[in-house]
Precorrin-3B synthase (Roseomonas elaeocarpi), 416 residues
Amino acid sequence: MTVRGWCPSLAEPMRSGDGWIVRIKPRRHGLSAAQARRLAAEARRWGAGWIGLTNRANLQVRGLDDGAIGPFAAAMLRAGLAEADPAVERQRNLLPPVLLGSDPALGQRLEALLDGLEAVLGDRSAGALPGKFGLTVEGGGVLPLGEVAGDLHLRAVGDAVWLRPDGARLALRCRWDEAAEAASRLIRLFLDRRGEARRLRGLVSALGEDGFWAAAGLVAEQPPTPFASAPAAGFRGYAGTARGFAAAGLPLGRLDPEALDGMATLAERFGDGTLRVTPWRLLLLPGVARADAAEVLQRLRRVGGITEAADPRLRLLACPGAPHCASGTVDTAAAAARLLALGAVPARGLLHLSGCGKGCAHPGTAGAVLVGGADGRYGLVRGGTARDLPAAVGLTIEEAASLLRATGDAEGQETA
Ligand code: SF4
């Protein structure tokens, strides 16, 4: 990838080593089965053969050639998977509670809140937001977003909505009907002072927390403790009902179009007819009866989903790497297959395979990170990110596997 700090959207694809990349942003209730089938068909027809799940709960189709972008985008628009106005589509970065509309613990008030926030993001009267600028809305339930980051994080707790800018310790407490206007006010502050920082976190840092809230003319408070989140593959029931959701991971977060087709069929037959993309690279089938859970999980495995929480493939993260990404020096998919075959994925903790030092697949820390170097070999970072100084360099994948096996579990703190 050649442009830092920029995200591809449907109308603004990004050039990479294997062609153009476009990003599909599912709506707040996920993909309908029909949308999933349409996306699978068009990705199969025009793309590189797989669809990537991103840590912003988007879907990324890559490998489109010059002649494919127009027809692919037209098909996505017809399917209702994008806004016709490219500027609105670019800013439509709103991560809702992943089970909205299915988990009964997520109340109707969240829908009205999201209506208001969508209007705020669609309003460009104050200027254009950076393509990566996004909002996260947290409403509790059986699978909260927890610590998933956004430039502005909104958390609904009881009668209040708390707005916390990324990087801030304090948050603004609002009534539900005030929250969208408060979000608009904070976004306008960012846009008014956009020369000082590229993201909201940078502005909080530049002004200092007290200075930020003073500049906004708002008084912030200590927010309540975040909802704890424990995303995992498998089935989990909603509180007080006979239904729940089934969650499946995909090897390296890559979704085969046939697998997407198969999951769409399962969603119609056993669930509420939708699929949810999550920031944890798990696909969810909401609305599954507890009585059908075992059968659904078995059928998910048949179409390529990973449903056992202990499966080592779920602890292995990899970016597209070479040859898909022009910046990649190593074939991350081949390396991942080799590490699995050699039994080198640690029994605990994340192993992050990065095609270069940018670390796109996982900006946070992992127990161990293998980073492709200019020589086509690997550097090993323990308990850090792809940008950190490696403890060992110039490793073949077999040498890296030996080091990983020798120490057993991946070590160190991990962050999202
Ligand atoms: S981390 Fe991977 S996807 Fe990101 S620029 Fe490097 S090789 Fe490309």
